[in-house]
Structures are given as structure tokens and as C-alpha cells.
Amino acid sequence: MPNKLDEARELLARANRMIANEGVLDAFGHVTMRHPTDPRRYLMSRSRAPELVEPADIHEFTLDSQIVTPIEARLYGERVIHGEIYKARPEVNAVCHHHAPSILPFCISGTELKPVYHLGATLGEKAPFWDSRDEFGDTNLIVAKPEEGASLARALGPYWMVLMRRHGATVAGTTLEELTFRTIYTARNAAMQIQAHTLGLVSPLTAVETELAGEYNLRPGPVMRAWEYWSVRLDKAEGTLHKRAAKPARRANKRSKVKRRRGR
Amino acid sequence: MPNKLDEARELLARANRMIANEGVLDAFGHVTMRHPTDPRRYLMSRSRAPELVEPADIHEFTLDSQIVTPIEARLYGERVIHGEIYKARPEVNAVCHHHAPSILPFCISGTELKPVYHLGATLGEKAPFWDSRDEFGDTNLIVAKPEEGASLARALGPYWMVLMRRHGATVAGTTLEELTFRTIYTARNAAMQIQAHTLGLVSPLTAVETELAGEYNLRPGPVMRAWEYWSVRLDKAEGTLHKRAAKPARRANKRSKVKRRRGR
Amino acid sequence: MPNKLDEARELLARANRMIANEGVLDAFGHVTMRHPTDPRRYLMSRSRAPELVEPADIHEFTLDSQIVTPIEARLYGERVIHGEIYKARPEVNAVCHHHAPSILPFCISGTELKPVYHLGATLGEKAPFWDSRDEFGDTNLIVAKPEEGASLARALGPYWMVLMRRHGATVAGTTLEELTFRTIYTARNAAMQIQAHTLGLVSPLTAVETELAGEYNLRPGPVMRAWEYWSVRLDKAEGTLHKRAAKPARRANKRSKVKRRRGR
Amino acid sequence: MPNKLDEARELLARANRMIANEGVLDAFGHVTMRHPTDPRRYLMSRSRAPELVEPADIHEFTLDSQIVTPIEARLYGERVIHGEIYKARPEVNAVCHHHAPSILPFCISGTELKPVYHLGATLGEKAPFWDSRDEFGDTNLIVAKPEEGASLARALGPYWMVLMRRHGATVAGTTLEELTFRTIYTARNAAMQIQAHTLGLVSPLTAVETELAGEYNLRPGPVMRAWEYWSVRLDKAEGTLHKRAAKPARRANKRSKVKRRRGR
């Protein structure tokens, strides 16, 4: 019988691979969650591409982003992004840092990312913009020092997503499943907003619509419906799905022709 | 020997998965059809991502969008979109509600979606634009109340597709196969229109061309040709296609070189 | 020992599936070739999506686009596109008609498609624009009548590709392999031209560059290199490729680390 | 026990296939490396699509781009791109020439490619623009003559990437792994820059940020993390990955629901 920590590792590894499988994470970026029984710790993979993360890769870290049981393998350089947000926001239980192709254009141009459809409302009313130069001047852009992580956490403030100038985004959630939902749908929202700019004037949801739609879509029903979907897509991509019993297309097609003849 | 209802369930589940496999549906959205023998009912899946829908997931609903035989599982929240359109339009036998990435930019910017090529002519002359705020003010954007569904059905009027502000689109068809065709090709048409805006002036089909091309492409021949195509693509994606007997590329290539030497 | 006609059927079916597998053809469109021993005939599939075409689907047609041995199955409606070009252009031995997503924006906006890189030079100096309304007024856009096909062939003139207003494109080649190359790389060229418009001024190859680069890339070497590539990709997609003997990534990675330690 | 040359061939074949699998190379383009023990030679495949390159396809060339042991098979026409860069830049040990869809719009429009995010900083401060007409007038665009290769190498100068007008790009690296990283992430950077242009003003990294971020990301840790990722993705695409032991999604989902009930 698996204990809570084993279960959390299994889920967190899966969330890493799911978000990568949906094209939001690539070789870089990371997903973490707060320890299921000890809120003063969080769980994070050793340094490797999220698409490859297995439960055994996941280790415990203090909120100061020190590994609890040292290992030989390399660790992620940007652990403090996670640790400092867990410190600042007790209600946050999962964090994702990424460089999604649809989000970067906003980080490059400074254009405001807005909730432009109901599923994008999970972004919340606002995604603040953090410019590392404001406090730290010219750097390698990597958020590696505790004070850099703390500065980013301050920029996030009470919101759920922060854009990082010419770098990427960091997203927070109250649960791992909510985080996964918000991470993927804010990336989709960004892609749609870019395309809408091609057509003309972009008009976002109103503040009230954003609040109501965000609330609606983050209920367990929609969140778990999406989780199941991304999870099965991952299983398909990894070749671990139990194949549906083969139903030849031919029969469905023949049936369909019969119906048409009869039905139109 | 399968009865009509079993056949309808099989087809409807397949249509859900086909449209998802073509990228028009994701974790959300739904495809329904009118009951094959009782026009006062329609068939719809329980709440789950369309790509995962199986025949056993499909249940019967009254036109007031009440499930005929209650189940434990969660139902879709936006059933009234379908029920109210079936009420208002007796000739409609299938409905799809979706949030396709190529359609949303029109729902966000308010730009008119137009038939810009012959296959897009299945859109019809016009896709009306429904703004939920006109009658209901600020909401969560979800069309869950009967009066909201009825309002959307009125906006659809005699047309075949209605755009929903910052939400998505709803498409109707006289058969499930026609609906599938219209849903996918209007999404393709939208993607082409966006790209055409990048190049310059977008000029749509004339009204007469739209009517003639729409009529031509919705005959059983083209509709079933496309259905077979999407169905086989689904079987490939699900790994249930009977693999073609292996014909090594090598031979085709060698043959081809011989031909070139001889033929040019 | 296969005869020439059987070999041609095998190759033509493969070309249909290859071009579809590269995203240029979808449920519609068709690829044909002139009969390998009788220039007064051409070979074409019965009506089905190109991705599904098998050698047994391919039949012989006269240049008036009549099937030589009548069959029960449905035929493509736009046969005359092919027949009339074979009539008008004795050096043309293969034709593809398609609605590629990257080409349609040009057919919709009227923007000129230009060779913008060396592989796009296979387009030739110019792709004329054919507007069906000029001779035929408002139609269903389908090129089904001999006079429509003849008009299109006249518009093509001595060139290798003709754009069809709000409909698609038709491409010609002296061999099936050359046609495949030109069809795919003109579609790629179109996608790049659209993206270049986003950045600013688009400047095409000069006339001399176009001629020289087109000539270079249509030699047997490049054409067969690309054919082998698309053919193997098709085999992968169809699951008929003999899998490469498994070489675990692990060893390659370990080796690589060793090298780095030593080599930098 | 494999010797250094065999190991190099294995790695180089894999790099060709990996970069192709990430969509940067198609039927054309090539990746080479300097001979592991003889700096006056380099290794390159015979002429075939990079996605198909096997260790046995790889041969030795002098820096004058002559094959050391002549073979019957066709060679790449643009060998001098590689040979002349290896001559001019002793610290360069790997070169990739490609026509990536995200890079060509810059080669067509003349817009400057800039490092717009930290991973794109591996581009370095500048990607010079080489116009073959400046020295050679109208050509077929192919860099086949030694003087053309030398001209391109001069244009590259001390930088790591050179754009080639209406043709493509050539990228250099001190190791094969660094080259792979720079090739893929400069292509990603280009795609993001194009999208950022759609939104508005594009602002790149500062010179200091570019230097620091480039340095950080080219350390062995990030480079090998990305190499492992692309390598496993290649194995997946080629069907040679040892499948993960099947863990049904169902259990992960059920577990997840339990957690939610408890945890929110």
C-alpha cells in the first residue's frame, strides 16, 4: 500500500510529463508541489527535462531550497523560485516555472497577457510583469539566489502567474491539479491572444467575468476532467495506454452510409 | 445484431473522438445527436473530454436537457446549448460546441468569420455573433440555464454556426456526418482567414459561390469521403488500425530510380 | 515480376500518401500521373482521401477524363484539371491539385506567391492566378467541366503552378518525383513567405537565381534524396518501417559525457 | 570496445537525427563534426536526409572538403561550408547548416535575428547576414565552391551563427552537444521573435545579459540535460525506447481524486 509521499511523487512526476507532453515545457522548466504532510518542505525532481521525470527522481527540499538528503546528481539551478513562493504563500501547494512558446512573446514585447476566454480566466485578473533588472541589473536571467526568488515572489504578490522579462513565467496553484490546469490553459489563452492581435482589437473578459469564469473552471469537476484527458494523452504518447479493443473503421463507416441513406 | 440506438452511440462516440483528434476539441466541448428514433430526445456523453468518449458514456436527454435515466457520474454543464437548438430547429440532428484555437481569435476580436474558400462555404453565408452580456450581463460565460441556451439558439437563428463572445462556437448539422464536416472545415477556414489577414485584404466567396459550394460539398460523396479520412486517422492515432502489409520503402525507391533513369 | 503499370500504381499511391503525410493534402485533393506506356491516358485514384489511396484504387482515364474501364465506386469530380493539363502540356507527366493551409492565404488575399528561398525556386519564376469568375461567373468553385479544366490549363500556361482564387492550387511536374518535390517545397515556401510578411519587407530571389536554383534542386540527386525522406517518414507514420535495431540512448549519453570531460 | 571514431560516428548520426526530429532540419541540411583525433579532418554523412543518417553513412573529409576514401554514393554539394569554417576557426568542432522554417523569414526579410530570451542567448551577441550576391552575383544559392565557403566563413567571423540571404543558416559549436543546443534554441528564439513582432515592440537581451546567459546555458549541465531530452524524444519517435512499465492512468486519477477531497 503506497504511502502519501510515494503517491505524491508518482503524481508530481506525471504532472511534469503531462505539461511537457502538451508543449508547455521543453528541456527546461520544472513543476513542484508542497510536501503532502510537511508544509515546510517541497518536492522537486533532480535536474532533468520534465518530460523524463520519474517518481524516483523526486527529492525533498526545505523552503530555503536545500535538499534534505543530499544526492550525487545535479539539482535544478532555479530552486528558489519555488521555495520562496511556498514561503510567501501558504495557500500555494504547487508551482510551475516554464518558457512556453506562446508566453515568451509577451515576456519579450511587454504586451499585457489578459484573460481572453473563459478557460483563460484561470489566469486571474492580472499576471504581473517582473523585470530582473529592476533590483539586480544585468544578470544571466537565472533566478538562483534566495533574494532573486524572494523578489519574484513579491512581484507575484497575491496573483497566480507572473511573467518574467525575456525569460518565461511562473504559475502557482492551491493543488497540483489546479496548477496543471492553470499552466496549460494560460498558455493556450496566450496563443489565442496573439492570433487575435493579428485580426485587430483584442478585448478581454470583464473583471467580473474573469472572477466568475475562473471560479467555475477551477472546481474539481472541470479540473479533473482535464487532468484525465492530459493523463490519457500522456499514456498514448508513452505507449502505456491499454489499447481500446480494435473496432475496425470499416464497420462504423458502412453503418454510417446505411444511416445516411435512410436518414436524410 | 446492433439496434439503432447502439449504432448511434457508437457513431456519436466516434465523432467526439474524431473531431478531438483533428484538434478542434480539447478537454472541453461536446458533440451530440438527436435520438435516432425519438426526435424529442438527444444523445450526449457524460462529462468527460471528447477524445475519451466511449459508446457506454452516452446517455439520453430530453429536449429540456434532463437525463432520462439518472446516473451517478457528472453531466456536462452546458447541456442546454444542445437541447434548446434541437427544440428550435427540427431539421437539426447534430450539434457541436467547441473552443477551437482558430475560432477563438474571432470570438475575442469580434472580426467577422467569413467563408474564404470552397470548403469553408459549409459555414453558410453568415456566422452570427452572440454576446452573453446583451441579455445576461456579466456571467461565468457558461451557458447553463435554459434561458441562456434559448438565447443562443435565437442568435443562431436559421444559420449553421454561431460565434460566442470570448467563449467559442456552436455548430449544427442535419446529420452527424454533415456536422463533423462543417465543424472541422469551418475551423480550417478560420485558420486560413487569420493567415490571409497577415498578407492583406481578405476577400470571401460571393453569396452565390457560398451557396453553391456549400451545397456541393455537403452532398453524401464529399461528406463520407472526409468522414472515412478522419475515421482512419483516428484509428491510426488510437493504434487500432489494421496495419497495412509492410511494403519496404527501399523497393519503391529503387523502382523509382530505375524509372527516372528510363523516363526523363 | 511487376509490370510497368503495376509499378506506376504503387508509386502513385505512395505519392498520394506521402504528400498527405506532409500536411499538403487533407481529405481532398489528388495526385495523378500520365500512363507509363500510353501518353493518351493518365492514372488517378477513385474518389477517396489521398492519405488512404492504395494501388488497387488507381484506374486509367482518357485525356478527356473518362474512365477506361467503368467501376461502381465514385470518381473524383475534378478529373478535368488533370486531363486538360495533360492535353495542353505533353512534357507534363504528373499533376497535383491541393488546398494546402499555407497556400490558401494567397488564394484568398490575392497576394503574389514568390520564390523566397532556393528550394522554393522550384516554383519557377511565377505562379499565375486563375479566377474562375472571369470566364464562368459565380460557380461552386469546383473545376468539373472540360471547359473549366481547359481554362485552368490555359492560365497555367508554360508555368508549373497555378493559384486558384479561394480554392487552392494545381502543380505540374515532368515526373512524379519532381512533382512531389515541387508540391511540398512550394507549400513550405508559402509558409515562410507569410511569416516573412510579419517581419517586414519580403524580397524574393532574383529571376536568375530562381532559374539556377530551380534547375539545381530538380536534378535527380536532390529530388530522390527528398523522395526517400518523405517515403521513410510515411513508413514511420504507417508503422511499416522496419525498426532500427534498438540502441539505448543511455549509452550514447554516457559516451557523450565522457567525451565532454575529455574534450573541452 | 568501440574506438573514438566509431563513437564519433554514432554520436554524429544521432545529432543529425535529433535536430531533424525537432523540426530544424528536413530533407536538406547537414551536421558535421571535426575528426575526434585528427583536427585536419571532419566527419560528414554521404548525401541523404539528416533524419535518416546512420553511423555507416559517415565518412572522413579533409579540410578542403575532399573525401578521404572515395565512395560510390553521392556526397553533399555544400561540403565547403563545413570545411572552410573548420579551417578558419580552430576552436570550432561541429557545424550545422539548415533551412529551419523559423529562421528563413529573417533570411527573406533581412530583419535582424536577436537573442530575445535567455536560451536564445546562445546565439551570441550577433548573427551576421551573408548575401552571396555581394561577391558572387546571381548564383543557384548553393555554397559549393571553396571561395564561396571561405566567403561565408569570413562573414561568420568570430560569431556562432550566420544567416544566409534567402537560403538558411549555418551554426558552429565547440562541441557537437553545444552545437546541437545552439542550433535548436536559436531556431526556437527565432520563432518567438516572430510572434513578438505580432504583438509589438521586440526588445532583446542587453549585451551583458546575452553574454552571461549564453555562458550559463552552455555549461555541461544544461547542454547535457537538453541532449538527453532530445535523444529520448528521438528514441520515442523511432520506436526504440524501452517502454516505461505500464502504469494505468486510472490509478493515478483515482488517487488524485482522493487527495482532492482530503486536501482542499
Structure notes:
- 4 copies of one chain form a homotetramer.
- In chain A, 45% of the residues lie in helices and 12% in strands.
- A 7-stranded mixed sheet of chain A has the order 3-2-1-4-7-6-5, with helices on both faces.
- Chain A is globular.
- In chain A, α2 packs across α5 and α6 packs across α8.
- The N and C termini of chain A lie far apart (56 Å).
- Chain A has 264 residues and is α+β, with helices and mostly antiparallel strands.
- The C terminus of chain A is likely disordered.
- Chains in contact: A-B, A-D, B-C, C-D.
- At the C-D interface, α6, α7, α8 and α9 of C face α1, α3, α6 and α8 of D.
Number of strands of chain A: 7
Poorly predicted regions of chain A:
244-264
Return the structural class of chain A. Answer: alpha+beta
Q: Which radius of gyration of chain A do the C-alpha atoms yield?
A: 20 Å
What is the terminal separation of chain A in angstroms? 56 Å
Largest sheet geometry of chain A: 7 strands, mixed
Determine the mean pLDDT of chain A.
Answer: 92
Q: Largest interface: which pair?
A: C-D, 52 and 59 residues
What would you say about this model in short?
The structure is a homotetramer of 264-residue chains. Chain A has helices spanning 4-21, 79-88, 104-109, 133-136, 146-156, 176-199, 207-217, 220-238, 249-263, and strands at residues 30-34, 41-45, 58-62, 94-98, 129-130, 161-164, 168-173.
Architecture blueprint of SSEs:
Four copies of one chain form a homotetramer.
Chain A: H1 4-21, E1 30-34, E2 41-45, E3 58-62, H2 79-88, E4 94-98, H3 104-109, E5 129-130, H4 133-136, H5 146-156, E6 161-164, E7 168-173, H6 176-199, H7 207-217, H8 220-238, H9 249-263
Parallel strand pairs in A: 5-6
Antiparallel strand pairs in A: 1-2, 1-4, 2-3, 4-7, 6-7
